[in-house]
Amino acid sequence: MLDIKFIRDNAEAVRKAAVDKHIKCDVDRLIEVDKRRRELQVQLEVFRGQVKEDGQKIGLLRNPKSPWYVKAIADGKTEADIKAEAARVQAELAEIKPKIKQLEDEEGPVLEEFEQLMLLIPQPADPAAPLGKDDTENVEIRKVGEVPTFDFEPKDHVKLGTELGIIDIERGVKLSGSRNYILKGDGAMLHQAVLRLAQDMMVERGYVPMQVPVLVREEVMYGTGYFPTGRDQAYLCERDDKSLVGTAEVPLTAYHSDEILKESDLPIKMCAMSPCFRREAGAAGKDTYGLYRIHLFDKVEQVVICKNDIETSKAFHEEILANAEAVMQALELPYRVVNVCTGDLGMGQVLKYDIETWMPSRDSYGETHSASRFYEFQARRLKLRYRDGAKKVHYCHTLNNTVIASPRVLIPVLELYQNADGTVTIPTALRPYMGGRERIEGQ
RNA sequence: GGAGGAGUGGCCGAGCGGCUGAAGGCGACGGUCUUGAAAACCGUUAGGCGCGAAAGCGUCUCGGGGGUUCGAAUCCCUCCUCCUCCGCCA
């Protein structure tokens, strides 16, 4: 969410920012509604002030023990005078009351519309984000590692995993429908190994590991920016008005929502391993093969909450990107980093770096990580604030990035580490989590 | 799931229809004192929105929402959360 004052003063820029992001919102209507909202508030406050004042007056007029009453009598007023005065004031109030009611009746829907419109205004992208319509226009920043060539016919992860008996997509689909799978034996082990490696590396880097709820209240989804626009992507538990999260970013970022932190508490660095639920609505027919686009996966996510300073935010953005790259380097996987273009940025993101890892079966780099910078966007929605040395209250800045998401990352791991005989060499960094073994050989 | 009890400022805790955005205490911050510190003493210490160039002013908020009333932290309804007991269960 943006500051309404900022929107008022920069309407043109906000409009353009939405166009760049290919997000529809109605800035003109918002400004109109905001104007009406303020007019109503001013009128209402005058009346409310009067009600308050008159109400107190009546209290005094009706209480013979009040200092005011005693003084009035001493000044020569009669009880009848005072009673008449009380009646007069009450009559005045009786006239104001319907006016307030009328204004309030108008204000209700105005406020409602104002809030709805506000939730749809996107955060303008950083000038450093390339202008573009979709992911095809993301800009490569750097490539790390060599894309290997094979001296045999390499298998894709599904064939490889199925033959090794470590991936069972057919039965996953039998149980849960399309985009579901089962990992088995060394498949399950490998999955947990990459997650453990990622988490251990983050803890080593000073991030506090958290175990968080993945079924959250609606306001948490709104607060992090996933609702209302992303509602169709979430699994809802409507009986309880809760949603399954698509990422631990949601509970981690909302952890301090509705709080005022001390500046000395910042930065807050956290990570969490959690299941992630995604409906993938609208993706029908896209990436249907294998473990790339699935409804449930596990992920270690990193979140940073820092002070409201653009340079600080930028520095942490580089840090969380570096954290993820360190994991990819530990796994010795070839990847590239791309600067995501405006059209591919979400509602709240100012700038986003994706890490894409080489996936032989796709014959291309596929997205495995997404590092986002939000400035105040989420913090405003979440009421996530801190007090500075001068006791002034500010919204925090928030950032997040994947550390590892599995089984998607198992696609490059399996495909790149496969051998001619159909076995898979276990990356050195994962061996401690795989009983020290060097290979997956299947049954 | 059933039966009770409770939700007040950073924390503890008074208030139970008007002068209470809220006593008192603790904590924190500033000051006096001190070589420094402690103690003691004095002071400051909610957020949102709006108006205003600013100083400042107004209004809303005592878990959330609604109602009664001239007037509500205080009364009523409803939802949420927590606690206790019973039941069920990993």
How are the SSEs ordered, and which strands pair?
Elements: H1 4-9, H2 11-20, H3 27-62, H4 67-74, H5 79-119, E1 139-144, H6 157-164, E2 167-168, H7 169-176, E3 182-183, H8 186-204, E4 208-210, E5 215-217, H9 218-224, E6 236-237, E7 242-244, H10 249-254, E8 259-262, E9 268-277, E10 296-306, H11 310-330, E11 335-339, E12 351-359, E13 364-375, H12 377-382, E14 384-387, E15 393-395, E16 397-406, H13 410-416, E17 424-425, E18 439-440
Parallel strand pairs: 4-9, 8-14
Antiparallel strand pairs: 1-11, 2-3, 5-7, 6-7, 9-10, 10-16, 11-12, 12-13, 13-16, 14-15, 17-18
Helix pairs in contact: 3-5, 6-13
The chain binds one RNA strand of 90 nucleotides through α3 and α5.
Count up the helices.
13
Helix/strand/pairing category: alpha+beta
Largest sheet: 8 strands, mixed
CATH domain topology of the largest domain: BirA Bifunctional Protein, domain 2
What's the shape? elongated
Number of strands: 18
Poorly predicted runs: none
Using the coordinates above, name the CATH class of the largest domain.
Alpha Beta
The quaternary state of the protein chains shown equals single chain
Radius of gyration: 29 Å
Strand line-up across the major sheet: 1-11-12-13-16-10-9-4
On the 0-100 scale, what is the average pLDDT?
A: 94
Percent in strands: 15-25%
The tally of structural domains comes to 2
Under CATH, the homologous superfamily of the largest domain reads Bira Bifunctional Protein, Domain 2
Gap between N and C termini, in Å?
Answer: 54 Å
